[in-house]
Protein 1
Amino acid sequence: MQDLASAFATALALIAAGDRSVAQIVLLSLRVSLTALMVAALVGLPLGALLAVTRFPGRRVIVVVLNALMGLPPVVAGLLIYLLLSRSGPLGPLGLLFTPTAMVIAQAVLITPILAALTRQVLEGLWDEYAEQLRSFGASAARAVPTLLWDGRFALLTVLLAGFGRASAEVGAVMIVGGNIEGFTRVMTTAIALETSKGDLPLALALGMILMLIVVAVNVLAQGLRDAAGRWTG
Amino acid sequence: MITIMRRTALGAAFALLALPTLAQERSITVASTTSTEQSGLFGHILPIFTRETGITVRVVALGTGQALDVGRRGDADVVFVHDRAAEQRFVSEGFGRERRHVMYNDFVVVGPAADPARVSGGRDTLAALRGIAAAKAPFVSRGDRSGTHAAELRLWQAAGVDPLAGRGQWYREVGQGMGPALNTAAAQNAYILTDRGTWLSFRNRQDLRIAVEGDARLFNQYGLMLVNPEKHPHVKAADGQRFIDWLLSTPGQQAIAGFKIGGEQLFFPNAADAEPVS
C-alpha cells in the first residue's frame, strides 16, 4: 500500500517537474509506436479489406494464419528481427540493430496481423450488407476496398487503437532489438523493466502510470476525433 | 472538413516522424553488463568522456555471456564485461583484439537477516556455500551465463558442492539479470551471490543483508576489448579504441574511482595491472 502511494507521488512529481529524461522517453515511445502503427496500417488495412471482399482458394488458410499471428509472442518476433538485422544477419549491412528504426520494425511486425485480422472481421460484416448494392453499381472487389475502408472508418478507429495499444505496451521485442540504450532507444516499457530490475518499484510503477496516462490520452483524442467527425458528417 | 482534419492528422503524424531523428553524431556501441549499467557507473563516467571527445557511447547492458555474443556477431564496437575465462576465449577466437584490465570490485553473498544457514558474518565463501547447501537454505542463482553466474559456479566447484543436486528445491535458477535475481531472493528470503555495485544501488532489499564479504575469492575483475575489425570491418575501431584508451588513461581511471554511492566507492581502477600473458 505504501509502495502504491509512493508510486503515485513519484508519478505526480515526475510530471510536475517536467523531467527531461522522462519526457524524452515518452516522446520516443510515441514516435516509435505511432510510426509502427502507420506502417502497419498501410499494409494491414488494405490486406484485411481485400480478404473481406474476395474469395479465392487459400483464403481461409491466410485468415487462419493471420488470426494465429495475432498471438505471436513479442520475444519471438524480437529474436527473429534481431537475427535479421544483426551485423552477421542478412540485413546486417543496413546497421539498423539497436536503433529506433529496428523497434518500429518489430512493433509493426507484431501489430500488422492484428490490424489485418480485425479489419477483415469488421469489413466482412459491412461487405455482407453492401455487396449487392456495390455490385449493382458495377464495382469490382478491388474498387470496393476503398469504399469499405471509408464506410467502416469509425469501427476501424477502434482497430487502430487496439494496434496502438499492443505496440505501446510491448516490451519483449523492443528490448531485444532496441537494446534499451539510454537517451537513444529507451522507451517507457523498457524503462519500466529497467527500474523493476533495479528494485526501484515505486519509480517503475510511476512510469507505468505515466504510460497509462498517455495511452488514455491517445484514446480520448481518437474518440474526440470520431465524435467530431460524426457530427460534421451527420 | 473531414479532408482538412485528415490532412491535419497526417501532417501531425509526419511531424512526429520528422522529430529530430538524432543529430548526426559520432557514436559507438558498447556491449556491457547489467552491473556496470544498473549501478549507475556509466551514467557517471560517459558524460565526462563525451564532453572530452564528442563521441556518444551507447550502452547495451546484458549478461557477460550475451554481451560477448553481441560482440561476436559484430553488433557492438567495444565489449566491457567481467568473466576472464570467457573473455580470453573471445580473444583467442579472434573476435576481440586484446583484453585489458580496467577495474575491479567484489562480489558479496547476501542472505536473509534470519540467517537459516548460520553463515552470516564470515569471510570464508566456500564454508558459507557448504553451510547453505547443508541447511538446504534457498539460494537464488542467476542461471544466465553472466559473469556473476560463472563466478558463482566456480565457487560451488571450489567448495566441492554440486548445487544442481538441489535444483528445483533449494537451488533456484532464475535465468535473469542481477536486479531481477535480487528481487527474487528478497521475495523468497534466499541467499544469493551479487556484485557489490548492484547490491549498493539496489532498492528493494527487504530482509536481505550482506552475509559474506572480504574473501579474496570474491574478487571481480572487469575487462575491456575492442571487437576485432578484421572480423567485422564496420566496427568503429578508431572511436572504440579512443574509448578504451580513455578508460585506461588517468582521467578515465579517476572518473571510475570518483563514482560513489552513499560515499562508498563501487569500482576500483586497475588498468596498471598488466594482463598476464594467456
Protein 2
Amino acid sequence: MNYEAVIGLEVHAQLLTNSKIFCGCSVAFGGEPNTRVCPICLGMPGVLPVLNRRAVEYTIRMALAVDGQVAETSAFARKNYFYPDLPKGYQISQYDRAGEPISLYGGVEIEGEDGPRFVRLRRIHLEEEAGKSIHNEPGYDPDLSYIDYNRTGVPLMEIVSEPDIRSPREASAYLARLRQILQYIGVCDGNMEEGSLRCDANISIRKPGDPLGELVEIKNMNSMRSMERALEFEIERQAEVLDDGGRVVRQTRLWNEEARETFPMRSKEEAHDYRYFPDPDLVTVEIARTWVDDIGEDLPELPDVRMQRFVDEYGLPPDMARQLTENRTRADYFEACVGHVTGEGSGDTASQASGDARAVSNWMLSELLRVQHESRMDQATLQERIPPTHLAQLLAQIKDGKISGKIGKDVLDTMAETGQAPAEVIEEQGLVQISDTGELEGVVDGILAEHPDDVAEYRAGKTKLLGFFMGQVMRATQGKANPKLVNELLREKLAGS
Amino acid sequence: MEHLNEMAAHELAPRIKSGEVTAEEAAREVLRLIDEKDPAINAYLAVQPESVIEDARGVDRRVAAGEPTGPLAGVPIAIKDAICTKGLETTCASRILEGFVPPYDATVIARLRQADAVIVGKTNMDQFGMGSSNENSGFGICRNPLDTSRVPGGSSGGSAAALAAGTAVLALGEDTGGSIRQPAAFCGVVGLKPTYGRVSRYGIIAYGSSFDQVGPMARNVEDCAALLGVIAGHDAMDTTSSPEAVPDYTATLKQGIEGLRIGVPDEYLAEGLDATVKESVGRAIERMEALGARVERVHLPHTEYAVATYYILVTAEASSNLARYDGVKYGYRGEDGGAENNAEVGGNTGAPGTGAATQIPVEDRLEAMYGSVRSEGFGLEVKRRIMLGTYVLSSGYYDAYYDKAQRVRTLIKGDFDQAFEKVDLMVAPTTPTTAFRIGEKIDDPLQMYLQDIYTVPINLAGVPAISLPCGQDADGMPIGLQIIGPHFGEERILRAAYAFEEATRP
C-alpha cells in the first residue's frame, strides 16, 4: 500500500548572542563545567530573569527573513518539569498556552518532490536551553551523575512549521533552507554536530486524500542524514503497522543512530503535564513597529536576492550563482575575491570584469571544492588557509601569463597546505612561466630537431600531432612554458619548411 | 536616657552621625537583648554577632573620620529570612534550605548597606511565607512578645516580634497576602506593603511572584517612611520593578489629612469581624474625620471571592517557584545525604564490586531522591500549597481554576480602581481578630486562610497598604488599622498614618 507522509518540523536554533537569554553569562561553546554560570542561570533562590534584547532582535530578524508576522506583544510562560539539568524546575519558553510567540506565520520555499513547495511556518518563539547531564563519561565516576550548567540559559529560537512536508528528502531540504537563512542573517551558526541547530519531527502517514493519521514525534536526530534516515524508518514502520491492520499509537519516539531505529520514549498517557502558565517574573515584551522597521532595514541580503544579483551583476549562469550563494561564507568569499581581481586600477571593462567573475566562480566551484574534498578540510579552515586575496592573486598570475592554469592548480594545492601567498609558492618552487620567446624558440627548435619523422608527418597533414609537440615542450620545461606562446611558435615553425 | 534599642531610627541615626552614641553601642545593646529575650520568643533564626559588631564599627569609623554616612547610619535592622543576605544563612525558615548561604545580596539588602544600616540577623517566619501564625516555621515557632502563649502572626512574625521585643530598631518584612500587615497588627507595630513593583524583588525568595513585595516594618510611621525611601526604586535586575520616581516620603509626612477623602469599604466591616476590632476601627475612623478627613462608604463588590482567588493563584505560582528545591544544587539532600535512595530503590541487587547504584535506572533513583528530599525538607503547609497549585495548573483544570481566578483578579483590581476614583484612601481593619493562641487554628487551614480576608485583596490589586496600631482588646492585645492607597499612593498613606499616630499618641 502506498502512503503519503505528512511531516512538520520543530527546529531549535541557538542564537549567536554574546550572553545568555536571561543573564550576563557567556554562551561560548565548551569551557570547564560550571564556569559559565551565575546565580541567575543556576536558578538560585530569589533570582530573577532579565530578557536579553539581542535575542529578541535576532528572532525578529528571522521572522522578517521568512515573511513572518511580528507580534506587537510577546510573553513568556513556564514549562514545569523536574530534571536535574533544569535548575529552576521549569523552562522559560513561549511554547503552548500562556506563551505568546514573537512571530506567527510566514514560510519558505524548497525544492519539493514535484517542483517547488512552500512550507508554511506556524510560529517562531524564544526559550532557554537546559544544562547537560553527564553519566558514564571518561574521567567521571560511573556511579555518580554530574551536571554541567554552562549551557543553561543559552538562547534558543524555535521555528515550528506546519505539516507541509511530504518526504524525508523534503524535510532535509527544508532544514537546509532554514540553516541557509539563519546563517545569512547571522543569528545562528547552523552547526548540527555541536548542537547549535537541532530538530524534532512530527510525522504521520495516510492514504492520499485521507484525513491526517495519528501523530508520532521523533527526537534525537543529530544530523541531516540521521533525520532523513529516521523519517524513512518511521514511514516504513507506520506503514507496516497499518498494513497489518493495526493502529499507529500517538507517542514520542527516540531515534537511535547506531541501531538505525526509533524507540518509544513515552506514550500520550505518559506524556508530561507541563502545567504551562504565564511567567510572572517577566513583563510582556512590547515590540515597537519602529524597532521592527529598523531591524528590517539592516537585514542582510537574503540568499535568493543575492543569487539573482550574482546573475545580474556578474553575468553568471543561475546554477553557478545558486551554488555560490548556497552559504553566506562562500558567497562572501566569492565577492571578496572578485573585488580583489577587478580591484582598484585594474582598468577592466565590464566584460572583462564579468570574465574575471566567471574565472573566480570556476575556480571556486571546481578547484577549491576539489582541494576541500581532497584535503578533508572544512570550508572555514580552507578559506582561512586561502584567503580571497590569495586566490585573487593566483588568478592574476594566470591572467598575466606568469604561470599556466595547470601550474596554478598545483600552486593552489600548496597554498592549501602551507597557507602561503601564490607569489611565494611560485618563487620558491621556481614555477614562473617561460614567456621569453627566445628561450622558448630554442626549446621548440630542439624538440622539432629530435623528431624529424613526426615533423614530416605533420607537414603531410597529420596536424593532430601538434598536441604531441606541445606535450614534449611542456615536459622539457617542466610545464612552465607559456602554452599560448609555444602554440604560436610550433604552428609557425611547423608551417614554414 | 532611654535604651538605644527602644529608640526610633530617626532619632538614633542622627545621634550616631553626630558621634553622641556609637553604632557599636547600639549593636551591642541589641545583641545583648537578643541573648536575653529571644530564647523565649524565637524571633531570630540566624545572628552573627561578630559581623554585626564589625559592620557597626565600620559605620563608627566613617563617622569618626568625618566621612558622609547614609540615612540609616548604625541603625540595627532585622531581616526576614525570605531575603537573601550574602554570607549569611538564608533558609526561608524551611529545612529544605538548611545551610544555604547566598553568594549574593538581595537588591534591598544592597540598598540597606548603602544606607549604612547594620543588619542584625535573619528573622523567623512561616516557611516560604506560607502561613499566618509563624507556626509553620521549620525551625520552631515564634511567639508574640506581648503574650508568649499567642502567635505573632505571619508570615513575617519574626520581624514583627523582634520590633515588639526591642531586639531590633527596624525590620524588613515581605508581604504576599498580608504577611507584613497581619503580624504588625498582632504585635502592635507598623508595617507597610508597598505597591507591587515599588521595591525590587531581586534576591527575595519567591512565593507568589505576582504578589510578593518587601516592605518596611518599624515601631513608628516616620521610621517606616524613611526605610521605604531607602529600599524603594527601580532595579535593572527586576523587570517587574517600576521606573516610577521615588518621592521623599518623610518630607510630606507631617502635612496632615485635612480634606482627604477616606473611604470605608462596607465589605470589610461585615460578618466574621470581631466586635472589639470593629469598634476600635470605628473609633479610628471617627478620629480621622475629626482630623479633617471626609469619610464616606465605598464598595468593593468582589471581596467575597478574594480569598479563593488568592489561594488559587498564589499556590499555582508557588508550585512552580518551589520546584527548584530538589536537593540537586543546594540545601537539604535527605536524611543521609541521598545515599539512602540508592539502597532503597536498588536494594542489594548489584553484584559485588559493581556498585548497586549502576544497576538501577538513573531515572528511578532520581525520582526517589526528589521524593525524599521534598517530603522531608518541606513542611506540611508548604506541601499542601504545592499540591493545590499543581492541581489548579493541571491540564483539564487550568481553565476552571487558574484562568478563571486570573479573570476574577481583574475584577478585584477593577473594584479598587473604581473606589479610588471616589476616594483618596480607604481604611479597614487589618485582621478579623487580634492575635490568637498558639495551636488554636493550626489544624484548620480554612480558618487560617480567613485570617487574610482583609489583606489579600490588596495584594490581588497590587496596591499599597499600611497597618498601624489603633487600640487594644480586653486582653491588651493590639488591634491593627489598615490604610489602603491607590497604586504608588505610599506618600498619602504614610501621611494619613502619621496624622493618626500623632493624634492617638498617649
